[in-house]
Write a structure and sequence with these properties.
The chain is mainly alpha-helical and 422 residues long. The chain has a single domain, classed as MFS general substrate transporter like domains (Growth Hormone, Chain: A), CATH 1.20.1250. It is built from 19 helices and no strands. Helix 14 runs antiparallel to helix 15. It is globular, with a radius of gyration of 22 Å. It starts with a helix and ends in an 11-residue tail after the last helix. It is a multi-pass membrane protein. It is found in: Membrane.
Length: 422
Amino acid sequence: MSGQDWNTALSVFFVTYALGAVPANIMLQKLGPRIWLPTMMLSVSIILVCASLQKNFAGWTAFRVLLGAVEAGVFPGCSAVLTTWYSPHEVHTRMTIFYMGASSAGAFSGLLAYAIGQLDGTWGYSGWRWIYCLEGVFSALLSIGAFFVIYDTPSKVGFLTDEEKRFVVLRHKFSAGGESGVAEKEEFSWAAAKQALTSVHVYACVLMEFTLCVVVYGVSFVLPTIIANLGYSAANAQALTAPPYVFAALVTVFSGWAADRYKQRMLSVLLPNLLALIGFVIIIVSVRYKHLPGVTLFGVFFAIGGLYPISPAVTAWTALNLAGTMKRSVGIGAMIAFSQLGGIVGSNIYLAKEAPRYPVGFGISITMLGLFGIVWPVCYYFILKRINAKRAAVAPEVVREKYTDEQLAEMGDESPLFRYST
């Protein structure tokens, strides 16, 4: 395949992912996590195994189309499920542990690809075919096991007593509605889905997550090339991509813990973006000097370490500012769906002819990180603070005289008693 064919096939994944995320999270609410999530995981696994058999551009494109459609049911769904189990000031930490799987996978996949690649030629199959086949089989086994450990709701957990189940359910029901003391709506509702799709808070967070997708997908495609240009062999370059992802996993968990501990959502987005921006500047300046590989690798650590904490931070911020189980689930799906379109941009801005400096790719990445990763979160922070101040100016007693608890619950995050997380 030509370079353009490769980029086209990479791009179609993001289209079907974006189209599928919202319907997938609606199906999650209809069928429940125990059925929906393992089914989507198994579907991904089957498609990965089938990918090992494709032989041309058409087959590769079909694989990416199908993979995007079914993967749309996994990450957004898991993120939504976490918000139904934990209180607002616990969920970010849990999301970082979940998302840490992505950065850990980035570290492990490079090493795994290197190891499986040694099977090149075995039974007449190329190394890359073995990678897809074996990773698909491993994922399939995990998806089958997931069916036995995933529960739809805390009330259905077998190892909890009835009293413990009731405590967990009520604790989440009232804490998820903000500090209003009003229980949030948990029933399936098309009206709530519509509210999510029209919520300004979803699109405020899309700007941040879209930027991340542009940057992270773009740099992940060219990272081995950048490292290889430092004088390492292709195999060693693949292996050297692992340490930055390990560092990213540690930064991600710390970021989530700190955000929950100090209740700081804006800083949990801004600081990692700043770290990533510094990393990109170091890379673009040092990559021209092959005798300074350590400096370039240092920049890679900063860039990857800064990028990976951003997604759980933005997802948590989105979730905390949407009240109502259905609205939150669809809102998370919508935020991730629209943001994934950034992958189309990211997979096309790092041009092969510009290697290894990639001035266009790094230029776009640095600009977007500055505008939507640093400036915009600060603006959004002050917008939320102003809304909260206006609501705080009205006494709760006045609000309760005007609205019933049922009406306040229906309003969700638009309730005068709801306070947005900043």
